[in-house]
Write a structure and sequence with these properties.
The protein is mostly helical. The protein contains 27 helices and no strands. Helix 3 (53-70) packs antiparallel against helix 15 (363-370), helix 5 (81-106) packs across helix 8 (141-171) and helix 20 runs antiparallel to helix 25 (580-598).
Length: 662
């Protein structure tokens, strides 16, 4: 029971980390998750998690790297193969060799083999961190492709180097010649095994489909189990499991080309499922580090081998060494000329610094160091295991801070929100064009159904504009509509169209709502142009009316008020003086109230017919949106990636609509 509660707490902490990042965007999510992990250790829990190092590579890296391979940009990988391989292989091996000796030199208490293991763990960059970085700063497109390709391949090369270094440390034996031959064998063996097992999986899936077993849940379960099964099979056969899952992931990226409903549905479910799995696993890695850090820090702080200031200085020195090696290597490399920057010396330096600072360390580094064994083959504890994990965590922290605060200065202070302002406006215009197209189909019979569909597009527009704008505009519109109700109530009371006491009651009700909304003294009860003697007369007069008559008078007044407000709103819509989304939403709200007040006479169709009408109008809206997206792309107002993303969202909405109608 305690383990289950602990898992729930960790999952809740992952959600909280993203919520905190929403309000403190300057602090990256991994840093928040590490801090939350440390906070969890302060809670009065009855469960203490004991980590199994061998489980880390299987549980975290196998699915993460499989997913990275599945979503790899194959064209970019091939087109930029030279710089990607130079960074993913050449730089990794250089980092392992140079940083290993450097680390052993500045911290002699860490043995050379263990220093090589830490250097190998620090060599790979993190794909997720790079992706989240692109959401904050404008990294040139080709540079981003290089970073994504590098982060995929260097995970494998770094982890293979890490496993060799750990094996040398644990067994106490190392031969460069045998290690080189073994490296080639297990690397090629892992790649080939990953491809073969992927082929076997496709044969099994095809056989199941021939049997008529098109159950999406079954096929999704097979896909989720695939990286774990491939990794375990590779380790059992003595080849590299990491390279096996990476090659299997890339092989899977060639799938899902056959167009049929079952595969399309599986593709949609797969994307959703994997997004949740990857989100949780990445968060868990940093949370687990946070839970381990207090004990690690206490162990290091109480150690007489190294001082407090020294260990922090070492993390800084290692970070400078990692990024410095990367910068030198990039400057030596011949990076292809990109369309993002000119081919001048200054622009080459800028690109080199961007590529260097964007080389953030993250999940792979963390999972590698935390997978270090506790003991050597001779039974002795793994030397300086806590210190190695602390140093790795320090480098991750410094690289995250450098990318978060130095990269924006280098590439410009323009944020993604500012950079995409024109594109956001284009998306708003697309939705507004859909609203116009739907409004042209409006008749007296389908007015309410079209209003409901239009309201969903209004909600999407308000989300694009932001909550603050939405709240202010809605508040102003509420004040206007309530004032119109007061104005009309006073008018019909003066012309004696309704009973005066019922009008006074309605004025009081509206006024209380206005006061709560604005907290302004002008809307207090005594400010209404209705005197207290009128209230007294009304109190007497109301006894002349039956309960049924009072209800009828109140409904009559409300219908008159709503009709008046609707006329004012439609005039605003014609004048286009305010946001049409807010005005349209209020029109739908008041039309709904009017429909309910008039009762069953206003209902023109049964619920089933109404739902069918809604689905037909929703399909019309989707088609209008698709046409407008294509038009905006052809005119250059939205870029191809945005167009693809918007069309994917439309496909998901269509799928959801089909599911509802089936």
């Amino acid at each position: 029971m305690e383990l289950f509660e602990y898992i729930l707490l960790m999952l809740a902490a992952i959600s909280v980390s993203n919520l905190v990042n929403r309000f403190v965007p300057s602090v990256s999510v991994p840093i928040i998750q590490i801090l939350l992990g440390m906070v969890i250790t302060l809670l009065p829990l009855h469960y203490e998690l004991t980590l199994n190092p061998e489980l880390f590579l299987l549980l975290f890296l196998a699915p993460l790297l499989f997913n990275d391979g599945k979503h790899a940009d194959k064209e970019a990988l091939w087109g930029l193969k030279k710089p990607i391989l130079l960074l993913a292989l050449g730089l990794v091996f250089l980092t392992v060799a140079a940083l290993g000796y450097f680390l052993n030199w500045i911290i002699p208490i860490i043995p050379l083999a263990a220093a090589f293991a830490l250097a190998a763990a620090l060599a790979p960059t993190d794909a997720v961190a790079v992706g989240s970085l692109a959401e904050k700063v404008e990294i040139p497109h080709q540079t981003m492709q290089i970073l994504e390709g590098e982060s995929l391949i260097n995970d494998a090369s770094g982890l293979v180097s890490f496993q060799f270094a750990v094996a040398a440390m644990v067994t106490g034996m190392f031969s460069f010649k045998s290690a080189s031959l073994s490296f080639v064998y297990i690397s090629l063996g892992g790649i080939i095994l990953g491809l073969l097992l992927t082929l076997v999986k496709y044969i099994i899936v095809k056989w199941l489909r021939k049997l008529g077993m098109e159950n999406v849940t079954l096929h999704m379960l097979i896909e989720v189990l695939t990286p774990f099964a491939i990794y375990l099979a590779a380790e059992e056969l003595g080849v590299n499991g990491i390279l096996a899952v990476v090659s299997a992931g890339i092989a899977h990226s060639f799938g899902y080309k056959k167009l049929n409903p079952e595969v399309a549905k599986l593709n949609i479910v797969s994307k959703s499922t994997w997004s949740v799995i990857i989100f949780v696993l990445n968060g868990l890695v940093f949370l687990l580090l946070g839970t381990q850090l207090p004990d690690i820090i206490q162990t290091i702080w109480s150690s007489s081998d190294i001082g407090h200031f020294q260990v922090i200085t070492y993390t800084l020195l290692l970070t400078v060494a990692v990024l410095g090696l990367r910068l030198i290597w990039i400057l030596i490399m011949d990076i292809p000329r990109s369309t993002d920057l000119q081919d001048t010396w200054r622009d080459k330096m800028k690109k080199a610094f961007i590529l260097s600072l964007a080389g953030v360390r993250g999940t792979v580094t963390l999972a590698s160091t935390m997978s270090l064994p506790f003991f050597l083959d001779n039974g002795n504890p793994f030397p300086q295991r806590d210190l190695i994990i602390f140093l790795a965590a320090g480098v991750i922290l410094w690289t995250l801070l450098a990318s978060n605060y130095l990269l924006p200065v280098l590439v410009g202070k323009e944020t993604v929100a500012e950079r995409n302002e024109d594109e956001i406006q284009a998306k708003i215009d697309i939705l507004r064009n859909v609203i116009v197209g739907l409004s042209e189909q409006k008749t007296d019979e389908n007015r309410f159904a079209i209003g409901k569909i239009i309201n969903t597009y209004n909600d999407r527009i308000r989300m694009l504009k932001g909550n603050e704008h939405k709240n202010n505009a809605e508040k102003l519109m509420w004040v206007s509509t309530l004032n119109w109700e007061i104005e009309n109530t006073l008018s019909v009371m003066k012309s004696k169209e309704v009973h005066p006491y019922m009008a006074y009651r309605q004025l009081n009700s509206i006024n209380r709502f206005l006061f709560r909304l604005t907290h302004e003294d002008q809307y207090k009860r005594g400010s209404l142009p209705v005197t207290y003697w009128q209230e007294g007369i009304g109190m007497v007069q109301q006894f002349r009316l039956s309960i049924h008559e009072r209800r009828a008078e109140l409904d009559k007044l409300r219908i008159l008020n709503i009709t008046y407000v609707l006329q004012q709103l439609r005039d605003l819509l014609i004048k286009d003086e305010l946001d049409i989304e807010i005005v349209s939403t209020f029109i739908l709200h008041y039309e709904g109230r009017l429909r309910r007040l008039k009762g069953s006479e206003a209902v023109s169709a049964s619920k089933q017919e109404f739902d069918t009408e809604l689905q037909e109008l929703a399909r019309l809206g989707i088609q209008l949106e698709r046409d407008n997206i294509q038009l905006m792309f052809e005119t250059g107002r939205i870029l191809r990636p945005s167009m693809k993303e918007m069309k994917r969202n439309i496909a998901l909405m269509e799928h959801d609509l089909r599911e509802e109608s089936s």
